[in-house]
Amino acid sequence: MGRWKLHLSVGLGLLAVLLTCCYAKDNYCFAARDKTCSECLQAGIGCAYCPDENFNGPRCDLRQNLVAHGCSEGMLLAEEGTMEEERRAININLQQSQMSPQRMSVDLLPGEERMVDVEVFAPTKGPLDLYILMDFSNSMADDLNNLKKMGKQLATLVEDLSADYTIGFGKFVDKVIEPQTDMRESKLLQPWPDSVGPFSFHNSIKLTSDVNVFIQQLQGEKISGNLDAPEGGFDAMLQAAVCTDAIGWRKHSTHLLVFSTESAFHYEADGANVLSGILKRNDEKCHLVDDKYTEDTTQDYPSIPTLVRLLGHHNIIPIFAVTNHSYSYYKKLQEYFPIAEIGVLQEDSSNILTIMREAFVNIQSKMSIRSDNRPKAFQTEFLTSSGAVAQYGAFNVRPGEVGKFKMRLKAQREIDEQPVCQMEKDDKEGIMKVKPTTFSTAMDVTASIKCPKCKCEQFPTVKAPKCHGNGNLVCGKCSCDKGWLGTFCNCSSTSSALDTSQCIGPDMKEPCSGRGDCLPCGNCVCTNPEQFEGPYCQYDRSQCPRYGGFLCNGLGSCVMGQCACSKGWEGKACECPISNQTCQDSKGVVCNGQGKCVCGRCECFNSDIQMTATCEPNFQAQLGRCEATRSCVQCKAWKTGERKEKKSCDACPFEITLVDELKEEEKVLEKCSFRDEDDDCTYHYTVEKSKDPTIKTLEVQVLEKKECPAASLLWLLPLFLFLLLLLALLLLCCLKYCPCCKTCCQSCLALLPCCRRGRTVGFKEDEYMLRQSLLTSDHLDTPMVRSGPPKGTDVVRWKVTDNVHRHANHPQALIKPNPKEAIQYPVSLRLNRLFSENLSRAESRDAEQLRKEVSDNLNEVYKHIPGAQKVQKTSFRMQRNAGKRQDYTIMDTVLTAPRSSFPDIVKLTEKNVQSGNMQDLKVVPGYYTVATDREAAGAIEFQEGVESVDVHVPLFVKDEDDDKKKLLVEAVDVPLGIAEIEKRLVHITVIKEQATNIFSFLQPAYTYSRQDAVANIPISRDIIEDGRTQVTYRTRDLTAKDKKDYVAMEGDLSYGPGETQKIVPVRLLELSDKDGLLEEKQVKQFVMDLSNPRQGSKLGRYPRTTITIADQPEPSVMMFKKGTQNFSTSDPTYTIPVVRSRNPDSPATVKWRTKKAQRFDLSGPLKFNPGETEKNIVIDPKSHPGPIQPETFHLELFEPSSNATIGERKTTIVNVTDATKFPTKASVPLQQKGYINQKATSPGGHLLSPANLKAKATGPRKIHLNWDPPPGNPLGYKVKYWIYGDPEKDAQVLDVKTPQADLTGLYPYCDYETRVCAYNAMGDGHYTDMVPCQTLEDAPGEPGRLAFNVISPTVTQLSWAEPAETNGNITAYEVVYTPIDDDMKQMGPAKKVKIDNPKKRMMLIENLQSAQTYQYQVRAMNSIGWGPYRDATINLASQPTRPLSIPIIPDIPIVDAEAGDEYDSYLMYSNEVMKSPAGSKTPSVSGDDYGMNGKWEQNFLFPGGSGTRNLSASSSPMSTLSSNYRGAGGSFNTESTTTTYISGPGASRRLDMMGGGMQSTEVIMRKRSERGYTEENIRDSIVMGDLSGKLPDLGGFGYAGMQSNSQSQFSYNLSQGSRARTPSDVNEALYNLDRVLQDARLSPGVPDTPSRLVFSALGPTALKVSWQEPHCEKDIQGYCVLYQLLNGGEGKRINVTNPAENSVIIQDLLPNHSYLFKVKAQSQEGWGPEREGVITIESAVDPKSPLSPMPGSPFTLSTPSAPGPLVFTALSPDSLQLSWEKPRKPNGDILGYVVTCEQLHGGGDLRSFQVNGDSSETSLTVPNLTENIPYKFKVQARTTQGFGPEREGIITIESQDGSALSQYSGNQSMTRREIFQMPTEVSTRTNVSHTMIDDPYFTDGMMMTTQHTETSGMVTRQVTKEVVQRSVMGGTTVTKKMFYES
Q1: Distance CA 659, CA 1238 (A)
Q2: 537-572 b/e with 16+ CB inside 10 Å = b?
Q3: What are the strands of the beta sheet with 1932-1939, ordered from one edge?
Q4: Which of 130, 186, 320, 1377 is the most exposed place for a label (fewest CB within 10 A)?
């Protein structure tokens, strides 16, 4: 009993949580419910703790929730933050900047925020310090002279700006060191005439208030000079900021620094400092001695972030006065400062004073507030006085006025998921300074986080009775002693407490519901507490109601099986907003006052007119096209009709075209004819949609000629009219005074054919097209018109038939209704009583009395109908357009009677209406309506003088209606009157969801074999309104996976007029090796979905189809055809069918046996031959002993053959009933007629299963079910539904009372399975067969953030992330980029690109406008449509280009921004683009070698012929960088470093002189990096190629170097006098280069190196190695895979003899050990070269056995990297220095390095060197080398795990005097050395690890490496310069190197 009390209390507590809990994601207090009291209060603002020991709910929650749960408010523990201010009023008479409050202190709880009102005051002419900092390079000479002349104007300016000012002057040039400054002695004394020596920064005039002294000292200044164009102004700005005393800045003044220059700037690590040998960072300190900067040659320039920070810290506002030449640099720089101004200087600086004045005015008008020294736990936000968040410059405070703003100070709750109370002290408290950027004055805010502690934790109740003496009571909760468990410590942890039965709750079978572990004392610990909860883990957090597929609509949490909605939402699935905002109409009124807002939608009151979604009248919806356009056509064509006034006619929304002949009626939407009342002529016109889809108006063509009456014998017209008038008067008198004459006259007239033709009745319109979604009524009032003389009365009978579009064999048409079924008959009559407003109110007394009168009389009339029940639902209304009796009351009621009674009810109603009485109820003759659910009949009356009357036609709208259904309304006859029926029929079409076309798959499932290679899926289109339309298709994984089993497809299908079907081909893939290892192969399935139908289309019966990929051979599935078999004792045999599905072409067997049978125990095999899909098990009951008696037994299938499986109906139940009690023959006719589902009836009297179960998805989160009831009287139905793949036992059950149900709260795009049974007092009946259905999709969110890889100022690589919420399958992306100006306004046409492969979220855009800002927008599309845009803005010219080690990824879209109108055709993918010839505009990229070791192929001309060079990188996974070439005269853009050697006059065919130009050969060094994204594992490859270009004649010698991204050429001209180069020199050099580069010329037929070596981890010890087939002129015969531990060990070999196999699986690897793999191919000519790779499988291992992986632990792949690039420095003819960088990813800790050296082409011994240590850069001196011999060096890191990959380099030290000749050259030798020319702006990373051939006559060379880094958000570069100087000494050459290492 105690245990039940315990669980009851826990359950009540959790239930209380459910009732009032906020959304768990937002209620952080509730999330801390299991924590201590202190942790609860520290969880955030608003959290309270209930220490009441009798409280059973969660103790930590919001205060109001705890009170609602029953905790006494007086017991609650809670805390609040504090805030104190020190505020003195602002004194505007004090002319200095002020703030109020001056200081404040806050102590806030986590998550708490406070709003502070702040006032600021800026004086009109406050104190001002103006410091002018001027560039003193020689180009500024005229600027200095002008400034000297403007001394008086400058004095006047500062006096105007401030009454309390100081002014100072400083000058700068650049660092006094090479290469910035010419270091020759003469130039250091006087670089230019009349100048002073160079300097970095000089504070010439300290800030002074004496203007005369300033002007006098300024006159003595002289210009200076330097070498390079960028200046060292940043050094000067930093010193001017930090040297406060030396400059003279005052404390309470505004500090302005005017920076005047015409040049760009140097900044930290831009390369010049490295070339100067300056590597030390700027220390940000003052170094002025005698007002001169003294540390310029010892420390670097400051970075831009440093400068921004220091100027802000010292309250200095920069004003950049720069020339046009450098304006763009400083404009970008200005953006980094919180407040700064910029102005364009004239060339002579004559406008500098104007710039200063305008800048000062602008600065005064702006105010940007910031908070400095803010602790990490706090956030600040500044708002305007109105409460809007203020952006930069939003505070417009005029000088002299008090400005007001608000500061929002918020304490964060968590930072990176760590509670702030657990953070370091410095992160959660400190003193902030809040100030405007222009102020020196600041408000001090002492901020701290309040982390309260509960006092009750300090005073626990020891051995508390509440805890049964087995624990302490701490803040109301028991803390149990050791050995005791439970909430109240009342359960001992002894063996008796281990009884698992205590964990079984009521109506449960398993402990903890099978979802948790049963702990002692009956406590359940759920295995997945994130999913399961409750005292017995009985609640599943994922099984609450869903809406739109989202659990609790994504707006609540699932607690204890129900949704607890977040604030503002309600409903079972939180689907209803509490606010009525979505119900407001255009005027802000809820539902226009004509309805009520229910669940965020308007439910409009009954109305005779169409209503919009907000209950506003929608008149146009009910008009036909003809009626809607009639008056406009009449006024525009003939200037007649109701719109003939010009103003009214001009308001018509379309124009007309007069034509001589109209189009045929079939080719237009509508053909209309009307009579013009003005001339009695008939005019005709057509209405159709515009052919231009962008034009939404109709196209109207009017026949120019009207049809008018004949004009002959017009003179007889007056006489004829007179006679007619006389006759009419006589008849009128006769009819008025003689009733018999009246009847006689009507009868006579009816006999006259001429008179009868004179009056006709008929429907006004032929056809109506109605959108079901726009219907506001279940009826349509269609007008019937009468033409001819409107005298007399005509009564017209009409009828309407539903679903006339269904043919005789339609499935619904075959279902004949039960004539005895009781249905409802809506009946309408017109009472002989005027309508009053009271009758419209159902609760009024008048309505109640009339309702009773109607019921009493109608019940008396209809009691003669057999089976009729009393009328109900009586209501009253008026009907407009009802002639003279439209003010009379229309009565609507419902009569229930058998279906077969319809004709009798119509006759009885008509008879009584004609008499004018329904018993004693007076009715108006001539009007009635009687309807069923599929047909209706009625009558309307035309009174005298009435020309039009509405027919109230029922539409029979039902959920199970077809997507496009048709009704036929027919005027039957005229029982009273003389009119003839003219337009007899009206066709009404009701279309669901405004469908113009219906798209659907032909069937819900397809099966294809992998051998088919392609699955062709047809998509059909049912045309309702012909035209162009589109639908989106997309595949989605189920058990089949994209890129593994098939290739995903997505896109839009466009259908032209008349097209009804298209095919989508889906490529199927072969089984992978890994899948081949799996013993139990899963059935591979994927789905294809249709979505986003356009142009008014919708989805039809099958919006999804499932494609099954049949592996070969595919197993057959065998099962019983039915779950239940029914026989009687009189049946001679029992025949039980077994069916087979899938792979029917192969034989299969299965065994069967009986179970639980009374008289027999049978078994046997069942064999299916090829092609057979059904076999029968036949049991002869008479062949077994004993009498045949009623019984129930089972049949079971078992032991299928190896190529078959057993399906879901493994067993079937056989019911044998007594033939005398349950005759079976009687039921056969009913079954054949379809009234009874052909399932068995149990002997116990249970109901049969419902029939015709249908399921249809009506939204992403909703499915509608309907079915036919079974015979009998079911009390209700149980609907069972579950997700496809889940067991049926976990299904949810819905109880309904009607034969239909709506399943809501489902997942979008999810397959569900359903069954339905009926139940009665005997219990549940039989379930239907399973019916599947799939929910629909939703639209996607915006893509992830955009990223740019800037290749050059005109080329960028744009990438983005997949949307966080795809809401289906992304089918495409759209990229739009637009040139914009600084105000974000469009400056040119936007270009749009659609990328129809969603996997390619990257694009290369070329030929952008240089220095132009673009806005880039990207959005995603799925089958529903496009999502929102994600945008970003960038100017490529302002961004540094990326290092060359970041490649252009292959297989991405490339677009050309200059392609104009043919832009879309210029979209391509990089793996589809061939390399371009020179001058081509086509983008060119590298080959397809991506991700792993690559192969290069390039043609190279050798002396006397040509050949092919295949050079391969070795050892480590690599990827190829791509290149981009432009031809001669254009740009050269390559992801590589290029050195070009050019011959002089007399060159050979290889370097041919062409009109003063030369043919040159380029040597391209390209970096390769693993997977294309990092610079790890870099190995170098060298590729030879030809580059054409015209260069000037360089005389005896020419050299040209090129760097990527610079798009410039640089050349050295080194004239050597008479020493000219000969053709043999060039050939010799090329031959030497060929030998040095290790030319691996393979004999024809030998395979190349295998490419794309790929590793895939299958487990912690298993690896799949795959590669691509190498190029080979002959057939590949096989492969060989070698592998061994990287640190040595036994090598293992795997031979692959099948050339079609390009992968192996290796199972015996050790975890966390690096392996070296080698793969090579073999042909009949022999083995080719190897491809190498190093890989490690990292995983957790068992501590007791380090070589064994931990079961279930994750595993990942990693690759150790080689040492950094090798750099060679020649020290003497026989020695060199070798240096390298530390590997970025070594395999273990580095212990040292091993360096090997050997001659490249053999000979000599292999030398080995050991280098210890792990410094970041290591060097080694190698002696005893031989001149003119190429050496190959290898460097390998030695780690704790062994040896890492090798780095290789090749070098030759050659003789320079020509006496010692190379063994390869014959008569001339070449020095192989790396020569690079430094471009103007270095933007590459080019680490040298190979060297190039140099010219023997070179005297100087230079080698450079650059590194791209990012520091503090700013881009910096690091450059290493190597200057190599050589001098000839005797017969040898000594190379000296000056090398500055960074």
Answers
A1: 64
A2: bbbbbeebbbbbbbbbbbbbbbbbebbbbbeebebb
A3: 1900-1911, 1914-1929, 1932-1939
A4: 186
pLDDT tens sequence across 1679-1700? 999 998 877 778 889 999 888 8
In the block, tokens 């290889």 appear at 1550
Whether pLDDT at 1417 is above 90: yes
The tokens for 640 are: 């007649």
Cα–Cα distances (Å) from 1668 to 272, 654, 1269, 1490, 1702, in that order, read 46, 64, 63, 11, 7
Tell me if 170 sits within 8 A of 132, measured CB to CB: yes
Side-chain-side CA neighbours of residue 507 (13 Å):
1
State the Cα torsion 1268-1269-1275-1278 to the nearest 10°: -50
CA distance 1397 to 1566: 30
Those residues whose C-beta lies under 8 Å from the C-beta of residue 848, and which sit 6 or more positions away, are none
Task: Classify the phi-psi angles of 549: left when phi > 0, otherwise alpha if psi is within -120 to 50, otherwise beta.
Answer: left
292-296: long-range contacts, CB 8 A cutoff, minimum separation 24? 292/199, 292/200, 292/201, 292/202, 292/203, 293/199, 293/200, 293/201, 293/202, 293/235, 293/236, 293/239, 296/175, 296/176, 296/177, 296/200, 296/201, 296/232, 296/235
CA distance 43 to 40: 5
Residue of 1422, 1227, 1437, 1444 lying closest to 1343 (CA atoms): 1422
Contact indicator for 1377, 1416 with CB cutoff of 8 Å: yes
CA distance 469 to 480: 9
The residue behind tokens 């006159």 is 219
Tokens of 533: 């909860």
Determine the 3-state secondary structure of 406 from DSSP. Answer: strand
Q: β-strand 1262-1268 against 1300-1304: which pairing, if any?
A: antiparallel
**pLDDT tens digits for 1658-1683?**
888 888 888 888 888 888 889 999 99
- The CB-side HSE value for 116 (13 A sphere, CA atoms) comes to 28
* Cβ-based neighbours of 387, under 8 Å, separated by 6 or more: 406
Mean pLDDT of the chain, nearest integer: 75
Q: In sequence order, which residues have a C-beta less than 8 Å from that of residue 716 and are 6 or more positions away?
A: none
Q: Quick: pLDDT tens for 612-652.
A: 778 876 645 545 678 778 888 889 888 888 888 888 888 88
Cα atoms in the Cβ-side hemisphere of radius 13 Å centred on 1785: 17
Q: What is the pLDDT of residues 137-181, one digit of tens each?
A: 888 888 888 888 887 888 888 888 888 889 999 999 988 887 778
Backbone angles phi, psi at 308, to 5 degrees: -60, -45
Average pLDDT in the 1318-1340 region? Answer: 88
CA 1703 to chain centre: 35
Q: How far apart are CA 295 and CA 390, in angstroms?
A: 42
| Contacts (Cβ under 8 Å, ≥6 apart) of 1389 | 1378
Q: What is the pLDDT of residue 351?
A: 83
pLDDT of 1301 > 50? The answer is yes
1730 contacts 1648 by C-beta, under 8 angstroms: no
pLDDT band at 1248 (very low <50, low <70, confident <90, very high): confident
> 1018 pLDDT exceeds 90?
yes
Give me 1749's structure tokens. Answer: 């992986």
Task: Say if residue 1398 is preceded by a cis peptide, omega within 30 of 0.
Answer: no
Residue 25, helix vs strand vs coil: coil
Tokens standing for residue 1253? 């179960």
What is the token pair recorded at 1651?
Answer: 């490419």
Strand residues in 961-1070 grouped as ranges (E)? 964-976, 980-981, 985-991, 997-1001, 1005-1009, 1014-1023, 1029-1037, 1050-1055, 1061-1067
Is the separation of the CB atoms in 1437 and 1386 below 8 Å? no
Can you tell me the distance from the alpha carbon of 524 to that of 500, in angstroms, rounded to the nearest whole number?
Answer: 10
Considering only CA atoms, which of 739, 727, 688, 684 is closest in space to residue 707? 684
**Residue 1679 has what pLDDT?**
93
Q: Which two tokens stand for residue 1301?
A: 């149900």
